[in-house]
Structures are given as structure tokens and as C-alpha cells.
Amino acid sequence: MSSQWLRWAKRLNAIAQAGLTYSEGPYDLERYHQLRDIAGEIIAGHSNLPPAQIVDILRREAGYPTPKVDVRGAVFRNNQILLVRERSDGRWTLPGGWADVNETPAECVVKEVREESGYHTRAVKLLAVWDKSQHSHPEHFFHTYKLFFRCE
């Protein structure tokens, strides 16, 4: 998908989601539902996923739209870094995943490292916060921040 099309569709969806959160009038709510569906159709028109699946994913998001948070752990030992295979595409990556509600980012990364590698670690330092849209990651229709921790 063209990144400009995706940016427009994400922006339309964010406007729709905020409108659905704060609007009370039935006509406004109907328009925001239509706007969200249009955003989903734009995304589907530029991807390999069926429109119904995209619209369903967008409909599950509720409340004011904010970026998702992904945590990653950098575990070093003997001048080597721990990598795991990503389930979605089989590529090598730092262990990590989505941050969970009611856990600190540090707790999340420790849990993700343990679940994906079996290693018990502790997060000792936040190394970086990346806005995923500003780096050469594959496009995704949710805005994501990646938090990188050094773990021991």
C-alpha cells in the first residue's frame, strides 16, 4: 500500500474513532461510523486483506485513538545479542511484543523475553523510543511506538 494512502486512511480512522468516542447525536454517530468504514475500504483497496476483515479490526478499537506500544528487549551476553524468530514472518528480531494493560513497560519486556526465549531477565535501562512510522518498518494501519530496553 502506498504510504500516503495509508496515512490518509489512518487519519480518517482516527477522526472517526474520536468522533465516535465524544459525539452523542445519532446523525453525527452515523457519519463517524461511515467515515470509519470508508477508511477501512481505502486500506482494503490497497492491501491483500478483505474489506470486511479490515473494517472488523477498525471497529474493535474504541476510545480516543492513541499509538500502540511495542516493547523490545536487548539481551547481551559474551558480545552476542539474543534474537528470536518473529511468528508472523519468521524473521529474526529482538524478543518483545505489545505492552499489556496494568503492567509497566519494563514488566512487559521482561515477560516477553521470558515467553519468547525462556531467559529470565530484568530491564535495566530504556535505550530508545522509536516512532515506527519514522523508520523502515513495514506499513501498519495502527500508529506504534517501539520501546527498546537493555535487559540483563
Provide the CATH top-level class of the largest domain. Answer: Alpha Beta
Number of helices: 4
State which percent range the strand residues make up.
15-25%
Overall residue-averaged pLDDT value:
89
Roughly how much helix do the residues carry, as a percent range?
Answer: 40-55%
By secondary-structure content and strand pairing, the structural class works out as alpha+beta
Q: What's the CATH superfamily of the largest domain, by name?
A: Nucleoside Triphosphate Pyrophosphohydrolase
The sequence of SSEs as H and E is HHHEEEEEHEE
Can you characterise this structure?
- The structure is a single chain.
- The protein is 41% helix and 24% strand.
- It is α+β, with helices and mostly antiparallel strands.
- The protein contains four helices and seven strands, in the order αααβββββαββ.
- It is elongated.
- It has two domains: 3-60; 68-151, Nucleoside Triphosphate Pyrophosphohydrolase (Alpha-Beta Complex).
- α1 packs antiparallel against α2 (26-45) and α2 crosses α3 (51-60).
Produce the secondary structure layout.
Elements (H helix, E strand, L loop, with lengths): L2 H20 L3 H20 L5 H10 L7 E10 L2 E2 L2 E2 L6 E2 L2 E3 L6 H13 L5 E9 L12 E8 L1
Parallel strand pairs: 1-7
Antiparallel strand pairs: 1-2, 1-5, 3-4, 6-7
